[in-house]
Automatic annotation (TrEMBL):
<feature type="domain" description="Mos1 transposase HTH">
    <location>
        <begin position="6"/>
        <end position="49"/>
    </location>
</feature>
<dbReference type="Pfam" id="PF17906">
    <property type="entry name" value="HTH_48"/>
</dbReference>
<dbReference type="InterPro" id="IPR041426">
    <property type="entry name" value="Mos1_HTH"/>
</dbReference>
<protein>
    <submittedName>
        <fullName>Protein GVQW3-like</fullName>
    </submittedName>
</protein>
<dbReference type="InterPro" id="IPR052709">
    <property type="entry name" value="Transposase-MT_Hybrid"/>
</dbReference>
């Protein structure tokens, strides 16, 4: 069952005035074991009720997207090695990620502070 197809079925039954439980039962009746869980159906009812989502562009359930990947880590590490006096805020602006993400990357890198004395 494709994502857009699934959302279309849920939206259709939502617009027809069906409850999430009725929609979940209909989907299970048609798709059997491949059917969505009732929590997913409730999530999409909430999305459509609040007009936050369309069938094609709506976000999916699951963990949010992370900007911390190999390329980003490499950019942060290269910037630190290039200018060891760079601040976390400057790193965040240069790499275009949040300050919190920069802090996490720096914490995970095998680097430590060195005293200039």
């Amino acid at each position: 069952m494709e994502v857009v197809e699934c959302r279309s079925v849920i939206r259709f039954l939502y617009l027809k005035g069906r409850t999430p439980k009725e929609t979940g039962d209909r989907i299970k009746e048609v798709y059997g074991d491949d059917a969505l869980s009732s929590d997913v159906v409730k999530h999409w009812y909430h999305q459509f009720r609040c007009s936050w989502a369309s069938v094609e562009t709506a976000s999916i359930l699951g963990q949010s997207h992370s900007v911390i990947d190999g390329a980003t880590i490499h950019k942060v590490e290269a910037a630190i090695l290039e200018d060891h006096r760079i601040t976390i805020r400057q790193l965040a602006q240069e790499v275009k990620i949040s300050v919190g993400s920069v802090k996490k990357i720096i914490h995970d890198l095998p680097m430590r502070k060195l005293s200039a004395r």
